[in-house]
């Protein structure tokens, strides 16, 4: 009986083929294409650390994204820490119940159990404060509250009103050095710019909200007064934010919060600020710049 040569060859090939399969499998597994790790229970809220080791070549994760987000967060936190000490509460004697507005309306100070409270921002270290006419009304003297370094209260005189912008300049009755904010250039803002609004909405002092510039040249007519280039933003602005600053991502004041759109008294996410450049002539004349 003749032996089959093919049978011998096949007997030799089978071990080699099996070994080759094992080698390929080991390489495949070590390369991370096929990897079965035991299931692990993670603590609630656990987020795995980002890794690029298992992504195909040319599709590595963007490690700059977390870094960029962290830098942005640190930048915003720094801006807030610089600006907040210069934001003050502005109070006046109650003048009766403030009527509820509908639609496009001036921001009003918040009238609560602690009195009527609006906002303002110190623009000069000598104690000059910028706020709105709606905040102070016809008062000649108001009370301002500083929240940095402990709650401190001062009296401040109304030393000027700008009829073109309805902005008011106050002067604190004290010979001290106060934390002041830097005035920016509102002509440079663009739609989409990040902005922060700081004030005392509903009496919650120095509340910070963030949004973007929705429009940088919005024409408005409020109670018969025309404003040609108001800044529109979706940063939350409510009663008590009147007179507070709208600042850019560098922490410079680019506007003073002044109006909002509240159809049927419902918050709509549409607020308006007077561009700071519109009041520069008024400010410089009063500060002697």
Describe, in plain words, how this protein is organized in 3D.
This protein is α+β, with helices and mostly antiparallel strands and 289 residues long. The protein has one domain: Thrombin, subunit H (Beta Barrel). It has helices at residues 5-30, 64-83, 133-136, 280-287, and strands at residues 87-92, 103-106, 110-112, 115-124, 128-132, 141-146, 152-162, 167-172, 194-199, 207-222, 225-233, 245-248, 253-262, 271-275. The strands form two sheets. It has a six-stranded antiparallel β-barrel. A hairpin with a 4-residue loop joins strand 12 (245-248) and strand 13 (253-262). It is globular, with a radius of gyration of 31 Å. 31% of the residues are buried. Mean pLDDT is 80; it is low at 1-61 and 95-101.
Brief summary:
With 289 residues, this protein is α+β, with helices and mostly antiparallel strands.
Strands side by side in the biggest sheet = 1-4-5-8-7-6
Helical proportion, percent range: 10-25%
Structural class: alpha+beta
Shape: globular
